[in-house]
Amino acid sequence: MQPIALSLGHRLSSTALRYAALRPGSTAWAAKAVRIVPSEVLADQQDCLEAKTARIEAVLFLAREPLSTRKLANLAKLADGTEARTLIRQLRRRYDQRSSALQVVDVAGGVQLLTRPQLADWIRRLHGGPEEMRLSAPALETLSVVAYRQPVVRAEIEAIRGVQCGEILRVLMERDLLRIVGRSEELGRPFLYGTTKKFLQLFGLQRLDQLPRIDQSSMEVS
């Protein structure tokens, strides 16, 4: 995400301008423009900024999944995704500076408001929480192969693992961790498998290129 200069808000047509004309022959400029910004205008600008930030915060608080900056801008009635990104950075700094229980997280191609990881056990005891997703070792192995080799056909997954994995693929798709992303051009046009947005959320990733680096030779078909 590229840095964007923070703006105090939209331009106001009521901004006053006063021009002080200097006498001819002066060594100074022939005319000098002096911009006068009344205190009430500055207050209005700040109120506008705070209102926009509050709308962004409210949308993130109510959202049940990561939202793109474009969608955030639309829901919070902002100019565009660029303005949304600016306000998100400001909101993130506020939470960090006051060591808030909340944090703004970039995940699964969007932005989400979450509690901090160190509070997870306490929140679970206090309020309960969703049932933890538990995956068997074979399921994790299959998921890993798909994550690193996608789009990939079932035959390649089975060749790497050395066992059949049709049932495991079905379970992972039921849990919304894998999906069919197309068909291969190979004989029979077998399905191609890939990971889902929920996969990124579960592992705290913004993009697939954030997966830990591994030695790809360990996943070569024998």
Could you tell me how far the N terminus lies from the C terminus, measured between alpha carbons in angstroms? 40 Å
Structural class: alpha+beta
Helix content: 40-55%
Largest sheet: 3 strands, antiparallel
CATH superfamily of the largest domain: Winged helix-like DNA-binding domain superfamily/Winged helix DNA-binding domain
The overall pLDDT, averaged over residues, is 77
Assembly level: single chain
Shape: elongated
Q: What is the CATH topology of the largest domain?
A: Arc Repressor Mutant, subunit A
**Low-confidence sequence ranges:** 1-37
Work out the strand percent.
15-25%
Keywords:
alpha+beta, Arc Repressor Mutant, subunit A, three-stranded antiparallel sheet, 7 strands, 41% helix
Secondary-structure topology with pairs:
Elements: E1 16-21, E2 31-36, H1 39-62, H2 69-75, H3 81-97, E3 102-107, E4 110-115, H4 120-127, H5 137-149, E5 152-153, H6 154-161, H7 166-174, E6 178-183, E7 191-195, H8 197-202
Antiparallel strand pairs: 1-2, 3-4, 5-7, 6-7
Helix pairs in contact: 1-3, 2-3, 5-7
